[in-house]
Amino acid sequence: xxxxxxxxxxxxxxxxxxxxxxxxxxxxxxxxxxxxxxxxxxxxxxxxxxxxxxxxxxxxxxxxxxxxxxxxxxxxxxxxxxxxxxxxxxxxxxxxxxxxx
Length: 101
Description:
Strand content: over 45%
Largest sheet: 4 strands, antiparallel
């Protein structure tokens, strides 16, 4: 997962942008994004996917505005190519409250 690291602090109200890359497959696989406490309690996130010019990999990008309720939720990218095991990458979101001045 690119764009967000495991120990990164995110301020509520800021935009979060993350990407995952899935290589191979004929046809190319698919990538889904989730945000939640576990695989059984999650929110499916809308994302944009792009295929490289050579057609050998898929890039998926998710963007959302972080809020206080996102703190300690997992941001998960799940990639699947037919006939191969699912690949999963997760990062715990560390969201701090928005400061009011």
